[in-house]
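Example 3.2
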Amino acid sequence: MGIWLLMTLSAFAGVAEPQDERKPARQIVLQGILGSKALLLVDGQRQMMSVKDAAKQGVRVLRIAEEQVDVEVDGKRRRLRLGGSRSVTGRYKVRQNAEVIISKNNHGMYSTVGSINGLPVSFLVDTGATSVAMSAQHAKRLAIDFRMTGEPTFVGTASGVSKAYRVTLDKVTVGGITQHNVKAVVIDGNYPMQVLLGMSFLGQLEIQRDGNLMRLKKKF
């Protein structure tokens, strides 16, 4: 079943300082750039903001550029990159631990942005898919020469059995989690409409569901 997949990923920050001198970390994630507006996830709440907008939840957009946005968070300037995330404390440092937080979209599906081989992709989380799956159109945009390098096969789709090609993706990133040599299938035609994030990526992670949120963690 083709589902629109988008995930949201987040990395948390922390410093070894006395607890009473620090404010709780704030989570700021750049989920997308739509023309002159940026789609931000601010402490779990989505905000569509432009440079002209007043601050919302202590966050103001200063500049929107290709794949990155400069914001002011509680008086501190930060740079956010598409598919990445930041948590802001009194002093900003990034911990090595990474956690992906995915919220449900309006259709009740878990969605976020990420990248394949360094190029931006909209993902739809599908724990029922054995591997990452994409259409031939997606593969062409991502410069994946699946007809030359892929292994021909057949897969079942909503419209029946379709010809497909098994490929290996050099790098798949969702938020702060990156995996290399990820198995995927490219399906001839326009199915699926969005890239499916299947178990060839998700199977390497711890998955927790908490209400409308899905949390992904690296298995260390």
